What we know:
The two termini are 28 Å apart. The strands form two sheets. Strands 1-2-3-6-7 form a five-stranded antiparallel beta sheet. Strands 4-5 form a two-stranded antiparallel ribbon. The chain has a single domain, classed as Peptide deformylase (Peptide Deformylase), CATH 3.90.45. By secondary structure, the chain is an alpha+beta fold. It has four helices and seven strands. A hairpin with a 5-residue loop joins strand 6 and strand 7 (119-125). The protein has helices at residues 25-39, 62-66, 126-139, 150-162, and strands at residues 45-47, 57-61, 71-83, 86-92, 95-104, 107-113, 119-125. The chain is globular, with a radius of gyration of 15 Å.
Amino acid sequence: MVLTLKLFPDPILHAKCKEVTEVSEETLSRVREMKDTLYSMPGLALAAPQVGFQERIIVLNLMKINKQPEMLILMNPIINNSEGRITMEEGCLSIPEIFEEITRPEKIEIEGMDLDGQKVSMEADDNLARVLQHEIDHLDGILFWDHLSEKKRNKLIDKFLKS
């Protein structure tokens, strides 16, 4: 089932999400719905609050990110280490048609939980690292433009609200 995307200024986009404590049938159902929703959209990834779930779940379409024919699902992801800095343009499904240059770490080490409830650790760089960081930010109520100066952020918010 394709879910309705939450758009700025929906308050759920600024809420900190709760950890997933068990991989229940409800959790698996939500992940399936998130995958269906992501497949139906032009985006690279989706975080649970973007579709109204206040849980720490992210889904990435690896085919669109690095040409791997699968989805990456992580629950309770955290970044343990990062290095380097790179500036690239970002956008967000929840803030359509707004793009801006954002500086983030170039390489990260991340851990989380998979659908079997097992701990997963991985390293990511380049575009995959950026997408993971963007989605983890969503779980903490942070939008990509929150990394900008207040002046630049307010300009983008005004532009978005007028569109």
